[in-house]
Amino acid sequence: SNIDAEKVLQKLKKDTAKNQELFGIAKGKNVIVISLESTQNFVLNYKINGKEVTPFFNKLAKSSYYFNHFYHQTGQGKTSDAEFLVENSLYPLPRGAVFQTNPLNEYNAMPEILKTNGYFSAVFHGNNKSFWNRDVMYKTMGYDQFFSEEFYNVTAENSINYGLKDIPFFEQSMPYLEDLPQPFYAKFITLTNHHPFILDPEDQWIDPYSVDDGTVSRYFTTVRYEDEALRQFFDHLKKSGLYDKSVVVVYGDHYGISERHEDAMAQVLGKESLTPFDHIQLQQVPLFIHIPGKKGRTVESIGGQIDVKPTLLHLLGIETKDDVHFGTDLFSEDHNDLTVLRNGAFINKDFVYTNETCYSNTFGIPVDIKKCEPYIDEAKDELDESDRIVYGDLLRFLKVK
Ligand code: GP9
Ligand code: MN
């Protein structure tokens, strides 16, 4: 009933704690969000035959806010689930892709919120517009413009796997980006580092990892390509003058290497075998936030994609007290570090819970399950409440002013 719905929403309309020093630091700036396909955190600072796999990301980690305990929280909707998390601060669904099952719901997504703050919004992606039902969902989320495959010159030479390669994707996006009304909110979705991680020989700038598992082996070469694409994009941004006028948020969308590749991954990580605890560590994806004029630092807060929306809104000086969101500001001292994965596993400063086992987060060894019990319920409630909102389309009852 509506009464129940209002109760849920009332409870969730919370004034998420801020970091007073950073609140509004990027007020009125453009926002550029980049989704990194299948990029896990373990590739940072990794070397193959003495060469860095991610030379650009390693530098970016030093010139921006780099979150080194940040987790993806996606389910079957993969890239689209990550988009949903980041822009709504709601969980994706336990099965299926929310972009496909609930694209006509009422949401209060980033592009919509920013529109009321004078922003124009656009999304850029070199694949067909209907993949993941994006064309429908993006309208719902308030995007003013979707630059999909049809806006790009895609040829046999400049595409591979799912579509346009990342380097020409960013190159060809620049004129569109420079033409957008400012301030803008622009999202870019990369594509080349996608399973099965294939690459033309001329794009291969690092040796494959030497292991008897082609997927893991090739993964490093497509990550290396993506890293170079990002380096070039940042260069374009600097040349165009947009770099100094824009907050840039870069996040990994989800894992690229599944649990099936455990043996090869054990070798990559220099371990004899992997435990469920190790598997959770592998769900870490990078998050970088570059703010013009700020040097940044490594932020140790444990968090996930659900936290990006309130974090970013606060940087832009936008209040979140009338917004329903499950995440909290990663820069705040009161950030809630309980990070819930879509399958009910969770991580906080002290514990990692997975496979019905409670691990010490410090030592990675099983501890008494009782230690995890209070959080097991909290994690479950959190997922259930979010699911109720999505399945019941409850944000219809939210009056935003
Ligand atoms: C497709 C791209 C990849 O357009 O977003 O999708 P994924 O399979 O990673 O969800
Ligand atoms: Mn993806």
Your description of this structure?
This protein has 401 residues and is α/β, with parallel strands linked by helices. It has helices at 2-12, 55-63, 78-88, 98-101, 110-115, 134-140, 166-179, 214-240, 262-268, 276-281, 308-315, 373-391, and strands spanning 30-36, 47-48, 51-52, 65-67, 70-71, 120-125, 145-147, 159-160, 163-164, 184-189, 246-252, 287-290, 298-299, 303-304, 339-340, 346-347, 351-354, 357-360, 366-367. The protein has an eight-stranded mixed β-sheet, sandwiched between helices. Strands 15-16-17-18-19 form a five-stranded antiparallel β-sheet. It has a two-stranded antiparallel sheet with strand order 2-3. A hairpin with a 2-residue loop joins strand 2 and strand 3 (51-52). The longest helix is centred in the middle third of the chain and has 27 residues, at 214-240. Residues 37, 78-79, 127, 131, 162, 189, 191, 194 line the site of (2R)-2,3-dihydroxypropyl phosphate. Keywords: Cell membrane, Membrane, Transmembrane, Transmembrane helix. It is found in: Cell membrane. Its main location: membrane.
Beta-strand fraction estimate: 15-25%
Chain-averaged pLDDT = 96
Taken from the alpha-carbon principal axes, the silhouette is globular
Separation of the first and last Cα atoms: 23 Å
Give a short overview.
The chain is an alpha/beta fold and 401 residues long.
Question: What are the main properties of this structure?
Answer:
single chain; 401 residues; 8-stranded mixed sheet; binds manganese (II) ion; transmembrane helix
